[in-house]
């Protein structure tokens, strides 16, 4: 039996949403405060995915300036109708939860996508769209019940018609459902479907942590009333314990294949080294069938497995990407992200062809800012990352190097800098906003090779002045500070290249010749 391995998108790719166009499948995920926003993927077999760009790739589409940690773009939905792709999502703009919902459109999923169409009087998060048979379009989202919540985190799912010509919500708002369980909380992630004359409403409840779950209700009328199946939740791992390899399963979307089979994409996490989720929430795939008008997920098992039977589709692998980026292209590869929308031209691939140049900004990675930082997701429990850097600090405030980031208060910085005694390389561990130097060595060179090797939660940081002649800077460093379980928030760990003048103006820069990343034994 041919099989595939979960997750289908490893690393920080939460809240997957999927649609099919003929033989092609498209998937989007949340991106929070990282830019470009909403990565979009293409597949022909539901297992092998290639990124074809980002939906929100222009600063005028998405201004993440001053967006706090774990805020930004939440839970996109992608749909296709009459030759047009729609992506609708929430922009959470502040720590207090102030938010706005909007949608963008495109005729080509690889872009360009339109500027946002902002929707007024659209409370809550996690919007979705249903294109009904009669030509009407319905918006669903979550909100606090109009009569007030009955208990903490009590939400409901609501519906309203969306007029695409006026680009606004019209008509009455309808309360649809507030979940399957008694005193269910954090009802969110609604997706509404019209299947065999029924309106099916799939939601998430229980919060996006360990008690996450997928539940379902249905109605003959789009406005309700909605009845639920007695088998709810239709998917959860909340009962499998902390030692289970896949946890916090929820936030699902479904798709029917060209072969007539049904599949569900959802988020989940893979803890390791204890209950630590450095990788964040990832995208998983699981089959389901219909029995008596209700979904039965992975019949006989009822849960997501690490290895599952391949879909009844012809396998379609994409050309394998190199794990080394030589920075020889005219544009950054899609794997790279900025922390918030870039302000100013602080990076370049053209000023020195074949190198990524990072100009030192006064903003640092110790604050909720837009530092000179270009990073990619950690996608494996064990990995190696290496880069070649050319840099020389001109003042005691200047630094450049390799950063492993959870947020501004939890991180590792492998920095080359100087003080009155001379130049040095150091490893700084930052936990709960407090720095601790874990390793330091004096060195006076223009070129350094920097390497981090993680075996589970044990991290070793090394350097070389000649490639492959490695010296250990710090070893057996506990990597759990990069997990959301220690640091909080909703985001998986990133690692990348960094340069800062730490509060001062500077004309200095760091040049990175290449960057290499690959998983170990995965």
TrEMBL record:
User: Which part of the chain is the Beta-xylosidase C-terminal Concanavalin A-like domain?
Assistant: 325-517
Q: Write down the species.
A: Saliterribacillus persicus
Q: Where is this site: Important for catalytic activity, responsible for pKa modulation of the active site Glu and correct orientation of both the proton donor and substrate?
A: 126
Q: What's the family?
A: Belongs to the glycosyl hydrolase 43 family.
What name appears for this protein in its UniProt entry?
Answer: Alpha-N-arabinofuranosidase
> Which BP terms does GO give this entry?
carbohydrate metabolic process
* InterPro entries with a match to the protein in the record: ConA-like_dom_sf (IPR013320), GH43_C2 (IPR041542), Glyco_hydro_43 (IPR006710), Glyco_hydro_beta-prop_sf (IPR023296), Glycosyl_Hydrlase_43 (IPR051795)
Entry-linked SUPFAM superfamilies: Arabinanase/levansucrase/invertase, Concanavalin A-like lectins/glucanases
Q: Specify whether NADP is a keyword of the entry.
A: no
What is the superkingdom listed in this entry's lineage?
A: Bacteria
A Gene Ontology molecular function term for this protein is: hydrolase activity, hydrolyzing O-glycosyl compounds
Q: Which UniProt keywords apply?
A: Glycosidase, Hydrolase
UniProt-annotated catalytic positions: 15 (proton acceptor), 188 (proton donor)
């Amino acid at each position: 039996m041919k099989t595939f391995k979960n997750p289908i998108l490893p690393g920080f790719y939460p809240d997957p949403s999927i649609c099919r166009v003929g033989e092609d499948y498209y998937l989007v995920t949340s991106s929070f405060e990282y830019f470009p926003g909403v990565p979009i993927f293409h597949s022909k077999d539901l297992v092998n995915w290639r990124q074809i760009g980002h939906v929100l790739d222009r600063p005028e589409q998405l201004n993440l300036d001053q967006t706090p940690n774990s805020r930004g773009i939440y839970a996109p939905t992608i749909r296709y109708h009459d030759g047009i792709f729609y992506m609708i999502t929430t922009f959470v703009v502040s720590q207090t939860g102030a938010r706005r919902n909007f949608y963008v459109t495109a005729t080509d999923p690889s872009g360009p996508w339109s500027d946002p169409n902002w929707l007024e009087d659209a409370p809550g998060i996690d919007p979705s769209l249903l294109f009904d048979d009669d030509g009407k379009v319905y918006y669903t989202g979550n909100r606090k019940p109009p009569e007030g919540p009955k208990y903490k985190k009590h939400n409901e799912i609501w519906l309203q018609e969306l007029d695409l010509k006026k680009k606004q919500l019209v008509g009455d708002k309808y309360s649809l459902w507030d979940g399957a369980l008694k005193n269910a909380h954090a009802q969110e992630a609604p997706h509404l479907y019209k299947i065999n004359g029924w309106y099916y409403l799939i939601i998430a409840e229980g919060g996006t942590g360990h008690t996450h779950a997928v539940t379902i209700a249905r109605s003959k009328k789009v406005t309700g009333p909605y009845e639920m199946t007695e088998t709810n939740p239709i998917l959860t791992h909340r009962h499998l314990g902390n030692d289970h390899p896949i946890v916090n399963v929820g936030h699902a979307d479904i798709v029917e294949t060209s072969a007539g089979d049904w599949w569900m994409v959802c988020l989940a996490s893979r803890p390791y080294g204890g209950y630590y989720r450095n990788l964040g929430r990832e995208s998983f795939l699981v089959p389901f069938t219909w029995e008596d008008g209700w979904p039965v997920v992975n019949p006989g098992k009822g849960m997501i497995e690490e290895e599952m039977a391949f879909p009844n589709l012809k396998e379609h692998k994409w050309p394998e990407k190199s794990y080394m980026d030589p920075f020889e292209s005219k544009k950054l590869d899609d794997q790279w992200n900025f922390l918030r929308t870039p302000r100013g031209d602080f990076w370049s691939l053209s000023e020195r062809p074949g190198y990524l140049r990072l100009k030192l900004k006064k903003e640092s990675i110790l604050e909720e800012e837009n530092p000179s930082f270009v990073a990619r997701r950690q996608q494996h429990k064990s990995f190696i990352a290496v880069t070649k850097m050319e840099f020389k600090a001109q003042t005691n405030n200047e630094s450049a190097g390799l950063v492993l980031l959870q947020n501004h208060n939890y991180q590792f910085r492998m920095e080359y800098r100087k003080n009155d005694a001379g130049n040095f390389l150091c490893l700084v561990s930052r936990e709960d906003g407090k720095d601790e130097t874990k390793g330091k060595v004096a060195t006076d060179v223009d070129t350094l090779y920097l390497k981090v090797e993680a075996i589970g939660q044990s991290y070793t940081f090394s350097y070389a002045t000649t490639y492959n002649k490695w010296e250990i800077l710090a070893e057996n460093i506990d990597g759990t500070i990069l997990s959301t379980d220690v640091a909080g928030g909703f985001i998986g760990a990133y690692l990348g290249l960094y340069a800062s003048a730490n509060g001062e103006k500077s004309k200095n820069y760091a040049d990175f010749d290449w960057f290499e990343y690959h998983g170990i034994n995965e």
